[in-house]
Amino acid sequence: MATADVKSLAVGTATTAAAALGQLVSGLGTAVLAPFVLLWLVLAPGGVRVLHALAGMERARLARWGPEVIAPASPPTRLWAALADPTTRRELLWLVRHLVAGLPLGLLGFVLPVLAVRDTAFPLYWRLAPQDATATSIGVGVAHSWPDALAVCLLGVGWVAIMLGLTPGMARLQASPGRRLLSAGPDADLSLRVAELTATRAAALDAHATELRRIERSLHDGTQNRIVTVTVLLGAARRMVARDPAGADELLERAQSAAEQALAELRTVSRSILPPVLADRGLAGALTGLAAESAVPCTVDVEVPRRCAASVEATAYFVAAEALTNIAKHSGASRATITVRAPGSRLLLRITDDGRGGADEDAGSGLTGIRHRIAAHDGTLHLTSPPGGPTVLEADLPCGV
Length: 401
What we know:
Elements: H1 3-43, H2 47-64, H3 79-83, H4 86-120, H5 122-125, H6 146-181, H7 190-240, H8 245-273, H9 276-292, E1 298-303, H10 310-331, E2 336-341, E3 346-353, H11 367-375, E4 380-384, E5 391-398
Parallel strand pairs: 1-2
Antiparallel strand pairs: 2-3, 3-5, 4-5
């Protein structure tokens, strides 16, 4: 594996672990409040309102770290009505699970970095520690020599390995009850789903109209002008054939060149509608070809055991194409990576770069168009681009027909 690939993998792993730690610590905030809310429900009036408020805080927190959790209709606040309300019962079940699992996981997310820093840096200060003081963060062992101090440092490296390997799964485990229990259930008011689908349809129509305008502009400004030029040149050549054969031959060459350019532009426009390479080589081959033409060196890693719907594959292709264009224009990156997986009935597309970060959806960089394309398939888009980078764009699409 090339050095750049190793560096990109290391940066991606560290970024994912750091985001997972942030998610775990943010979950600790609502988990710490859970026992007090339980006591309030049992001992004081108004506890149902507090439960609903905490559930709302958790929905907002989860939306910051992933797809939005659609809230159900406003549940009742009176005690006896709330006891019979399915939404309130689901919130109460989440509260208990968040207290039992979310609180320990959040504490681990807070403590693990402290343990890692404490033990990894131990060789720097072990001589300053009191004699016979416990050397490790787990309360075992005493350091009397440099080998002992380095052994403690290795323990710190172990903590780092745990953070890199386990914290993403821990974050998903902490968030899972909230995403499952706090979202609108199958018995919720269908008007919420109708509103969501209405917004999705509007985004799809907007994306479709934008695409039609782009195609029309490409045909009008490029191909049509070339064909008009061919027509004019052929007319002029026909009139010159008798009196100036050499000049007519020159005009015919120019007409042929203009016709070839028009044909090339027409092929480019047709590929932008639905690239033939998708049908011929599948999504993996299409993305490999896209990466080969990218101005920024790009690595492609696709593991899709089956073909998805043609419209879904086309959306993934165009999202990757637009993202690579943005990377080349705005990021200053030296490397990009496209990763595609298809767990279950979903297609997950992840595009990363090591550029300067700071991508802004409102700055006209094409991200809004990407979001509309994905929304048209009832998918989700998540963008992480802190200043200084790296930028990670994740698209989640249904891999259906």
